[in-house]
C-alpha cells in the first residue's frame, strides 16, 4: 500500500500513473516484476508513437489509455477510462467493432479495420485500428484483455473522399456528373423501397445555343454555372442534380410520396430558370424544357430500369415538352416511343422527298402598310409529303441535323431566283425576293458560291435578293460573318435580320454588318395589343431601325388593329395573314390578276441609306 502511494507521488507521467495502479492489480493477478517492467516499457513506447493505444476488456470497456489517445480523440483521459470504446465510435460502426472485439478475444487472431471515432459533438476521426489480444494473456473470452492500437488516417480518408467526389462532380457547375447519375440510379434500383417513387427529370435549356453563339462561351459557361446553382437551391440539395454535358441537366428525385410532389418540384425549377440572368451587363432570359420519367410504384414486380432506359424515357418526354412549345415539363408516356419511330420515318423519307420533288416554295407578300401594295415576297418552303404536308418548323430542324439543309437551302435559293425571273418574264415585277438562310447553310463554305450561282443562273440583278438570317447565325462568328456579308453585299445582295428580338444581338454589330432590314419577330406583334412591354419593344425596334437606316418589317400581322398600331409607329413594311398567306406561285399570280393583291413600284431600299 505504501509503495503505491510512493509511486503515485513520483509519477508525473500518466503512463507511469497508470502502471502504478496496474502494478497493484497485476501483482494481485500474479504478474512478475519483470513482466510488469516490460509491459510498462511497451506502453511508454506506444505513448511515444502519438497514435491511438487503448487497453480494453473484451466487451469494450477501456482499462488503459495513452495520453496521446486522449489527445487524438479530444477527450480527457479520465473520461476515456470511464467509458467503453464502443461509446466513442460512430453509431453505425458500433456493431462491427463489438463483433471484432469479441472474435479477437475468442481466438486471439489479430484484426484490422478502419473505424470512425466520434470526438466531441461534431468532429470525428478515422482510425485504422489493429486489435490484438494482450500478450501472455491466455484468459479467453470475456476475461481477455485487448490492445487496440490505431493510426489516424482522417486526412487520407478526407483526400480520398474529395477525390471520389471530384470524380463524380461536374467541374463547371459543382453538380454531379454522368458517373454520379449512374451511381444514384444503381443505388435506387438496388434499394427500391416499396411505395416510394423515384423520378428522373432531364432538362435542357431552350435557346441556350443562341446565348452561347451570340454572347460567347464564357457567358454560356457563366449561365450554366448559375443554372447549376439555382437548381441546387431549388432542390435544396446538390445531391440531386447532375449535368450530363452541354446544357443538359438531370434531376434525380428520390423518396417521393406521389407524382404530384415531383411535379411541384419541376414547376419550381421552371420558375427559377425563367428569372433573368445578368451576364456581362446584359440581362438574359432563358426557359427550360423538362422530360420526366417515374419508376418505383411496383418495384418488386418491375425490373429496374437501366441508366439508358431512364434517359431514353426522360429524353422522349423532354422532346415532347419542346414540341409542345418549350418552357414546360412533360411526363413520359409509352406512346412517345411510336412518335419517335414516326420522326425517324419522316427523316428517312426526306432524302427521297428531295429526289421526288416533294419540296416546293410558297411566297408570302411583304407589303406597304398604307397601300397594301406588294413590295417583296418571302419564299417559304413547303413539304408536300404523300401522307400530308409537314411543317417547316418540323422538317427544317431535321434537315439542319442531317445535313440536308445545304441542298434544300441551295435549292430554295435557285428556285426563288428562278421564280423572280419567271415573273419578270410574265410582266409581274415583284421588286424583291426574300429567302431564308439557315445558320448551318450560312456557315457552310460553299454558301457564297451557291448564292452567286443561283443569281447568275436566273439572270436577275443581285440587289433584288434579300437573305433573311437570324441574329444568332450572325453572331456566331462575327468576324467571319462580317467578311461574308461584305463580300455578298458587294455583289448587291441585301440582308435582313430575321426574328429580330428573340436572339441576343450586340447592337454594335448591327452597325458594323452591312444590313438592310430588321424583321420584328411575330411574337412581339402578336403580344403588342395586350402587352405594353411588347409594344415598347416594337417601338424601340422602329427607332433603332430609323437610327441605323434600316427598313423595319413586322412579321405575323393578323389584325387591322396591329396594322394600324405598326403603321402609327412608323413601321416600313408588314407581312402577315392580314394581307396574305404564303401562296403557291399560281395562286399568287391569280391574286394579282384578280386585283386582290397589287404590286407596288417604290423600291424600299433606295428610300433610305440601306
Ligand atoms: P420565318 O422565317 O419567321 O417565316 C415566317 C413564318 O410565319 C412562316 O411560317 C409564315 O407562314 C408564318 N406567318 C406568316 N404570316 C403569319 C401570320 O400572320 N400569323 C402567323 N401566326 N404566322 C404567320 P412557316 O412557313 O411555317 O415557316 C416557319 C419557319 O420555317 C420560318 O420562319 C423559317 O424560319 C423556316 N423556313 C421556312 N422556309 C424556309 C427556307 O426555305 N429555308 C430555311 N432555312 N428556313 C425556312
Ligand atoms: Ca423569315
Ligand atoms: Ca421570322
TrEMBL record:
Ranges for domain EAL: 343-596
The GGDEF domain, residue ranges: 196-334
Domain of life: Bacteria
Pfam families the record matches: EAL, GGDEF
NCBIfam families reported for this sequence: GGDEF (TIGR00254)
PANTHER family: BIOFILM ARCHITECTURE MAINTENANCE PROTEIN MBAA, DIGUANYLATE CYCLASE DGCP
Protein name from the UniProt record: EAL domain-containing protein
Source species: Cupriavidus pampae
